[in-house]
């Protein structure tokens, strides 16, 4: 059902959001050991942070002082080349996720092309969404087909039969009244 798919996606997103800060803090702590206090690595912001294979992500990095940088990840179909952002004072890039990327979290490394040779790190999570069959379609205004399917095929109940009968009777009376009045006018 549709609720099951939404529940699975919500659980995957919650897991990704829970693991992302943990991975980011681990990467920063490890980088401080590798780089010492000389250059503290920056952070790569990824939007969306969870994506399907073949999708695109926007990357932003604010640690670079120059006008370009290059990003690498096993998830990317190619290198991500960063340039100045028109709306902010940071560098941005777009990257396409490989169509054969496995569902998991991938590390992103960015090397700034500036005098300080600064670095930035981040993560992107690749997820596979299961495709649901598209046919047959339960058509109906606003989901009425699903409600009708849940009601069963026993036919109308007593209240529906009474209301339907009253509506038909009212329509017949209105039509008959109209014909009688029209007949009087022509005579």
Helix share of residues? 25-40%
- Residue runs with pLDDT of under 50 for 5 or more positions: 1-37
Q: Give the N-terminus to C-terminus distance in angstroms.
A: 64 Å
Q: Would you count the extended β strands for me?
A: 8
Q: Give the biggest sheet.
A: 7 strands, mixed, barrel
SSE order, as H and E?
A: HEEEEEEEEHH
Strand content: 15-25%
Nearest-integer average pLDDT: 74
Radius of gyration: 31 Å
The backbone outline, from C-alpha atoms, is elongated
Strand arrangement in the largest pleated sheet: 1-3-6-5-4-7-8
* Structural class by SSE content: alpha+beta
Specify the number of helices.
3
Write a structural description.
- With 187 residues, the protein is α+β, with helices and mostly antiparallel strands.
- The protein is 38% helix and 25% strand.
- The protein contains 3 helices and 8 strands.
- It has a 7-stranded mixed beta barrel.
């Amino acid at each position: 059902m549709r609720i099951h798919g939404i529940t699975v996606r919500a659980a995957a997103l919650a897991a990704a959001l829970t693991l992302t800060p943990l991975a980011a803090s681990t990467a920063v702590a490890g980088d401080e050991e590798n780089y010492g206090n000389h250059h503290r690595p920056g952070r790569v912001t990824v939007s969306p942070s969870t994506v399907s294979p073949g999708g695109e992500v926007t990357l932003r990095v604010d640690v670079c002082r120059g006008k370009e940088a290059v990003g690498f990840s096993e998830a990317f179909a190619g290198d991500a080349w960063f340039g100045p952002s028109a709306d902010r004072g940071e560098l941005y890039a777009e990257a396409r996720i490989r169509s054969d990327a496995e569902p998991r979290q991938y590390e992103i490394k960015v090397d700034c092309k500036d005098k300080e040779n600064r670095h930035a790190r981040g993560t992107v999570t690749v997820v596979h969404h299961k495709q649901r069959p598209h046919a047959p379609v339960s058509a109906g205004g606003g989901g009425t087909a699903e409600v009708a399917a849940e009601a069963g095929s026993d036919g109308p109940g007593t209240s529906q039969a009474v209301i339907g009968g009253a509506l038909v009777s009212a329509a017949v009376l209105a039509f008959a009244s109209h014909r009688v009045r029209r007949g009087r006018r022509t005579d």
